[in-house]
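<instruction>
Derive C-alpha cells from the sequence
<data>
Labelled lines for chain and fold:
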Amino acid sequence: MSDKINADKAPKPVGLYPHARKVGNLLFLSGVGPRTAGSDANDSGVPGLKLDHNGNFEAFDFEAQCRSVFDNVRAVLEASGSTWESLVDVTVFLVNMKRDFSTYNQVYAEYFKDVQPCRTTVEINSLPTPIAIELKCIATIDEGA
C-alpha cells in the first residue's frame, strides 16, 4: 500500500503524478523543480528567470533557482509529515553542469550543512519546463504520520 501526497505550498506537477508517495516508512518525492507554488506548466514562475517572447533568456539567476528548489522540497516533505532532517538520498539533475555546478554546490552546502544525505548529481539535456535544476529525493517518515 502507498499513499499519494500533494503539497499546496509546492508548484503543481506538470503531469499526472503526485508530489510524493509514502510506502511504509519511506517517502519518495517526484522530481521537484524551482517553480513557485501556484505556477503550472503554462506559467514559468521560475525565480531568477525572465524569458523574451521567443523563449530566450533575458535574465537568469541560477542561485535563485537553487534556493527555490530546496524550499519546494521542504514544502513537500512537510506536507507529507516528514522533515528536511529525514532526507536520506538526493538525486540532482542539472541542465548545465559546467556553468551551474559550483553555484549549486555552494548553496547545497548551506542547506545541507548538518543533514548530509547521499547525493548524486548528473547533467541532462533539458527538463520539461524552462528550469535548470530538479531534485529527486527519498526521505524517512514517522510511521504514525
